[in-house]
């Protein structure tokens, strides 16, 4: 707190927690916001949406080629088929497909644009200065930091979400998963794989470790 | 605005901070901050472009020092004042009250809140989410070569610095959206096409850059000019005029 300079000893402890509480009280008093509506918003983003939704979309695309085509062509009606509504930060969703030739990576260099309806709110690293600055100029370096080493022949496409379009990567289905159910496939899909900073592995890392100990 | 927020291509921010089993919010106040801003969008107190602009206006050193939701808090406070929802004095009064244990709904809180500007403002914000269904003539075709204009304006703009003056190719026409530039300054609505433009990595970062990389950026039509004119972009204003005319002539011939 030293960067805020001298503080009168009668002045109470400051900080964002207090200030946000004060702003909320003020806005509730003025009838601008409703405390119950705020609770509902928090509940929605904390408990209802998240990467499990995107993982369902990916798994369906893996098992249903026709759905995959519809998804890549126009994602909003396709995800609606799965009962997934669009919403803020996802009205104009585009799904981009990772293939053996092309790897897609999603970023927002200017702020933190992210496909909320399918992935929930972004992780801190996605909003970090380090990721925002380097994803466009050094995507291979960024991927290496995430433990992903791509063949140099694989073309990388970085999507900088500078407007109202939002992007989600459709990761490649790992080999050896032919017998898995759609739910089992969805369980393999990670958030980072749908941003493009990871590839989907099978067996997943934890299972592979357990097997190694057998 | 050539602000600190425009980070694409910068060095010096260190490794990417990753967290395992990361919670959606890291503190209770972050939850409330997020929800208040979403509710304010819903109430059309300000639009998303005004909010982004408010974040960009945070002085650069403070921007870097603040956490993500601290930046939201600063932007929200600024916008509440700008839109005459709450004055700085009211916010400070509410802060003192909260700090001294006064809760919302107390007599004191009501008094503090109702001081100067209790009447609801007429919000000029317009829709929070800026896309329009109107049909607007389209200037660029898929596959057309374009140059991102070298715009250095103090106002809000969603043309990243690293793309300015660079040559790219139109890959998609996303349709008509509200231009954020004016929308961020009081909610004026100008409709135009927004395109996905692909820039080769070497065009953006130089000949030494590895091959096989590209960046696709969503850019509004006024951010772009045609690259199909014979003379290059880096010319005197006289030549630029000539270039423009020749483009217009070409278009006329085609239509």
Number of helices of chain A: 12
CATH topology of the largest domain in chain B: SH3 type barrels
Low-confidence stretches of chain A: 1-13
Number of strands of chain B: 5
Strand count, sense and closure of the main sheet of chain B?
Answer: 5 strands, antiparallel
CATH architecture grouping of the largest domain in chain B: Roll
Task: Give the largest chain-chain interface (CB within 8 Å).
Answer: A-B, 73 and 92 residues
Radius of gyration of chain B, in angstroms, nearest whole number: 23 Å
| Dominant shape of chain B | globular
Descriptive terms for the model:
heterodimer; A: 214 residues; mainly alpha; Nitrile Hydratase, Chain A; 2 domains; two-stranded parallel sheet; 12 helices; disordered N terminus; B: 255 residues; alpha+beta; Cyclin A, domain 1; SH3 type barrels; 5-stranded antiparallel sheet; 36% helix; disordered C terminus
Describe the structure.
The complex is a heterodimer of chains A (214) and B (255). Chain A has helices at 16-29, 35-48, 51-63, 65-73, 75-81, 116-119, 124-127, 129-134, 139-145, 182-188, 191-195, 205-213, and strands at residues 92-97, 102-107, 155-160, 165-170. Chain A has 214 residues and is mainly alpha-helical. Chain A has a two-stranded parallel sheet. In chain A, helix 3 packs across helix 4. The longest helix of chain A is centred in the N-terminal third of the chain and has 14 residues, at 16-29. Chain A starts with 15 loop residues before the first helix and ends with a helix. Chain B is an alpha+beta fold and 255 residues long. Chain B is globular and about 65 Å long. Chain B starts with 27 loop residues before the first helix and ends with a helix. Chain B has helices at 28-42, 48-56, 60-65, 68-82, 88-99, 107-113, 180-183, 201-205, 237-254; strands spanning 145-148, 167-178, 191-200, 213-220, 224-226. Helix content of chain B is 36%, strand content 15%. Chain B has 2 domains: 1-85 and 121-127, Cyclin A, domain 1 (Orthogonal Bundle); 145-254, SH3 type barrels. The chains are: A mainly alpha (214), B alpha+beta (255). The interface between A and B is large, with 73 and 92 residues. Strand 3 (155-160) of chain A pairs parallel with strand 4 of chain B.
């Amino acid at each position: 707190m030293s960067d805020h300079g001298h503080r009168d000893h009668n002045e109470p402890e400051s900080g964002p927690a207090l200030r946000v509480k004060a702003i909320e009280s003020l806005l509730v008093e003025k009838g601008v916001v409703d405390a119950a509506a705020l609770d509902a918003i928090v509940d929605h983003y904390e408990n209802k949406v998240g990467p499990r939704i995107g993982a369902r979309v990916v798994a369906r695309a893996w098992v249903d080629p026709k759905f995959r085509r519809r998804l890549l062509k126009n994602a909003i009606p396709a995800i609606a088929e799965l009962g997934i509504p669009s919403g803020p930060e996802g009205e104009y969703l585009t799904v981009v497909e990772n293939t053996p030739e092309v790897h897609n990576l999603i970023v927002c260099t200017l702020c933190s644009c992210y496909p909320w309806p399918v992935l929930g709110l972004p992780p801190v690293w996605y909003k970090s200065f380090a990721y925002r600055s380097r994803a466009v100029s050094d995507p291979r370096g960024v991927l290496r930091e995430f433990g992903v080493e791509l063949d140099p022949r694989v073309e990388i496409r970085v999507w900088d979400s500078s407007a109202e379009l939002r992007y989600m990567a459709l990761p490649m289905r790992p080999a050896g998963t032919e017998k898995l159910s759609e739910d089992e496939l969805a369980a393999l899909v990670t958030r980072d794989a749908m941003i493009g900073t990871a590839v989907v592995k099978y067996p997943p890392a934890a299972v592979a470790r357990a097997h190694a100990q057998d | 605005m050539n602000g600190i927020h425009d980070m694409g291509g910068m060095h010096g921010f260190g490794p990417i901070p990753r967290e395992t089993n990361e919670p959606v919010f890291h503190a209770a106040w972050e939850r409330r901050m997020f929800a208040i801003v979403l509710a304010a969008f819903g109430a059309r107190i300000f639009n998303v472009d005004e909010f982004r602009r408010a974040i960009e206006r945070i002085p650069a050193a403070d921007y870097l020092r603040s956490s993500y939701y601290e930046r939201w808090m600063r932007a929200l406070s600024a916008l509440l004042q700008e839109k005459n929802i709450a004055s700085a004095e009211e916010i400070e009064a509410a802060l003192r009250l909260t700090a001294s244990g006064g809760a919302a709904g107390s007599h004191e809180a009501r008094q503090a809140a109702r001081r100067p500007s209790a009447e609801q403002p007429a919000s000029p914000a317009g829709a929070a989410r800026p896309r329009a269904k109107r049909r607007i003539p389209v200037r660029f075709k898929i596959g057309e070569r374009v140059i991102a204009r070298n715009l250095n304006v103090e106002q809000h703009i969603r043309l990243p610095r690293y793309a300015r003056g660079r040559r790219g190719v139109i890959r998609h026409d996303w349709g008509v959206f509200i231009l954020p530039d004016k929308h961020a300054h009081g909610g004026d609505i100008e409709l135009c096409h927004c395109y996905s433009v692909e820039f080769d990595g070497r065009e953006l970062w130089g000949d030494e850059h590895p091959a096989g990389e590209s960046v696709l950026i969503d850019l509004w039509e006024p951010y772009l000019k045609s690259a199909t004119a014979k003379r290059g972009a880096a010319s005197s204003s006289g030549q630029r005029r000539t270039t423009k005319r020749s483009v217009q002539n070409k278009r006329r011939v085609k239509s």
